[in-house]
């Protein structure tokens, strides 16, 4: 578990991987956080999976993060008389609230919020964009649209609306039940799907009440347009390229990814890059060259984490997929130009003492060639600030709060350790040096830099840094 890799790996669990033995293998192969997809997992399976992860965590002695990913609103067509319908560009079809099976002229769309939102000129995408339509006319409970491209419609195919903002929120009745169950199971992160606006996160925050971090999945153009506001409201962001690539032109998704990562780095908000990163490894033991480049680009851009979906959840090679992603990230980070690229994108510090201290710690560690930056943090804010600077030296985060240590497992460059709270400043230095030595991040005679808040046990009060020697006993001595 003595990893030097800075970017974190988020692996989805599913039928191929949600046993204690495989979870341990994936952790040792490089997984830092595990995702449970509530689109497929029942509450019983979710609780069982959480228990398996916690048993592996206890065995290995290191915190492991758990994310429960809410399904979000799923919009689908009704049914056709024959189960399907052949269409061609130029054909028109009316979508309405009538539940009877559809035909060549009309079909049920059992989502009144969609029918209310659609306006002439809006686009409709059906079956992951295989059929594209343009709305010609609309009323309170109907909309007439023309086929632009595509040849086939069928029962219950998914509907995407890139131009229409729906009045409904991001949490469905199923999501609310799943959210309660996930919080009761004490997961560390809640991922919200199909976010459109900051209010969608506000609704979730009222329910979560700080019991888990909230990650906003950016999948819709409306969310991209309000990205700054959403970043301000979220604890983390995911570049969810699957639906984003359906609702927006594929050629703009890479630039959106880069923009999102830059904005998140500037704000100090962890950012995850997801979807089809090693897709071919669902059924192949090795990835394509293009997939290797895709993962490498996310690492070079400074993403906090990269994610595996079906590769680790339902694929034939879950352990190999994690190991491959770990190897790619490790190789990129050993490139001599990697840290130069990361440093060149470093945001300016905010005009606060906490940010100034964090940036100073990063610069001092590099200038004096110290072995590590050690953070004491109860809430996680100190580690977040230091990680935002993307220091050249590794970060060791010590927290007395298990929930904080687990949540920080998704943070770039940060090794998270559960550690008893310090009693005074001398104890801070001693614990920092001892744990740095224990975790093989420093040897006797090496120096580290310690960042904390004084008075101790005051969340958000980062205002102190010290340089300390690690001596033979693993103790520290303050060094001016």
Descriptive labels:
480 residues; alpha/beta; TIM Barrel; M1 Pyruvate Kinase, Domain 3; Pyruvate Kinase, Chain: A, domain 1; six-stranded mixed sheet; 36% helix
Derived structural class: alpha/beta
- CATH topology title of the largest domain: TIM Barrel
Taken as a percent bin, the fraction of beta residues is 15-25%
Output the radius of gyration: 24 Å
Regarding CATH, which class of the largest domain? Answer: Alpha Beta
Distance between the termini: 32 Å
What is the CATH superfamily label of the largest domain?
Phosphoenolpyruvate-binding domains
Give the mean pLDDT. 94
Q: Please tell me what the overall shape is.
A: elongated
Number of domains: 3
Report the biggest beta sheet as strand number plus sense, adding barrel if it closes.
8 strands, parallel, barrel
Which regions have little confidence, pLDDT < 50, spanning 5+ residues? Answer: none
Strand order within the widest beta sheet: 1-2-3-12-13-14-15-16
Short synopsis of the structure:
The chain is an alpha/beta fold.
Characterization of this structure:
The chain has 480 residues and is an alpha/beta fold. It has 3 domains: 8-72 and 171-335, TIM Barrel (Alpha-Beta Barrel); 84-160, PK beta-barrel domain-like (M1 Pyruvate Kinase, Domain 3, Beta Barrel); 348-479, 3-Layer(aba) Sandwich (Pyruvate Kinase, Chain: A, domain 1), CATH 3.40.1380. The protein is 36% helix and 23% strand. It is built from 17 helices and 22 strands. It has helices spanning 20-29, 43-60, 112-117, 173-184, 198-208, 221-225, 227-233, 241-247, 253-267, 289-300, 310-313, 318-333, 338-344, 353-367, 381-388, 402-407, 425-438, and strands at residues 8-13, 33-37, 65-69, 84-86, 92-96, 106-108, 123-126, 131-138, 142-149, 152-154, 159-160, 189-192, 213-218, 236-240, 271-274, 305-308, 373-376, 395-399, 414-418, 447-453, 462-470, 476-479. The strands form 4 sheets. It has an 8-stranded parallel β-barrel, surrounded by 9 helices. Helix 5 (198-208) links the parallel strand 12 and strand 13 (213-218). Helix 1 crosses helix 2 (43-60). The longest helix has 18 residues, at 43-60. It is elongated and about 80 Å long.
């Amino acid at each position: 578990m003595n990893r030097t890799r800075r970017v974190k790996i988020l692996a989805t669990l599913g039928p191929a991987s949600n046993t204690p033995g495989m979870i341990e293998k994936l952790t040792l192969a490089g997984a830092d956080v595990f995702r449970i997809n509530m689109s497929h997992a029942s509450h019983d399976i979710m609780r069982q999976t959480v228990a398996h992860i916690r048993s592996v965590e206890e065995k290995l002695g290191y915190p492991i993060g758990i994310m429960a990913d809410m399904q979000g609103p799923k919009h689908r067509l009704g049914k056709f008389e024959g189960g399907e319908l052949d269409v061609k560009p130029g054909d028109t079809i009316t979508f309405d609230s009538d539940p009877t099976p559809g035909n060549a002229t009309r079909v049920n769309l059992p989502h009144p919020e969609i029918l209310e939102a659609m306006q002439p000129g809006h686009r409709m995408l059906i079956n992951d964009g295989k059929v594209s339509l343009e709305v010609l006319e609309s009323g309170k409970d109907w909309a007439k649209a023309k086929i632009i491209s595509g040849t086939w419609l069928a029962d219950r195919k998914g509907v995407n609306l890139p131009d229409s903002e729906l009045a409904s929120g991001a949490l469905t009745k199923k999501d609310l039940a799943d959210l309660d169950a996930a919080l009761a199971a004490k997961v560390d992160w809640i991922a919200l799907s199909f976010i459109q606006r900051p209010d969608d996160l506000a609704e979730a925050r009222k329910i979560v009440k700080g019991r888990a971090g909230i990650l906003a999945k950016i999948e819709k153009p409306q969310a991209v347009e309000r990205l700054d506001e959403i970043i301000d409201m979220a604890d983390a962001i995911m570049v969810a390229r699957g639906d984003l690539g359906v609702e927006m032109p594929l050629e703009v998704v890479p630039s959106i990814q880069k923009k999102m990562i830059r904005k998140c780095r500037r704000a100090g908000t962890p950012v995850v890059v997801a979807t089809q990163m090693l897709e071919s490894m669902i059924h192949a033991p090795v990835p394509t060259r293009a997939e290797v480049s895709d993962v490498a680009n996310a690492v070079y851009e400074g993403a906090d984490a990269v994610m595996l979906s079906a590769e680790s959840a339902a694929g034939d090679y879950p352990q190999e997929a994690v190991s491959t992603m770990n190897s790619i990230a490790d190789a990129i980070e050993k490139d001599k130009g990697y840290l130069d690229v990361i440093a060149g994108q470093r945001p300016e510090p905010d005009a606060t003492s906490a940010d100034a201290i964090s940036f100073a710690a990063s610069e001092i560690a590099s200038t004096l060639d110290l072995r590590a930056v050690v953070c004491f943090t109860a809430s996680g804010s100190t580690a977040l600030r230091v990680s935002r600077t993307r220091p050249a030296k590794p970060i060791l985060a010590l927290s007395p709060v298990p929930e904080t240590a687990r949540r920080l497992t998704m943070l770039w460059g940060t090794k998270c350790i559960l550690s008893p709270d310090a009693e005074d400043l001398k104890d801070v230095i001693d614990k920092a040096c001892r744990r740095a030595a224990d975790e093989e991040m420093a040897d006797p005679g090496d120096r580290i830099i310690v960042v904390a808040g004084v008075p101790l046990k005051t969340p958000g009060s980062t205002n102190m840094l010290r340089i300390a020697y690690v001596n033979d006993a693993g103790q520290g001595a303050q060094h001016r």
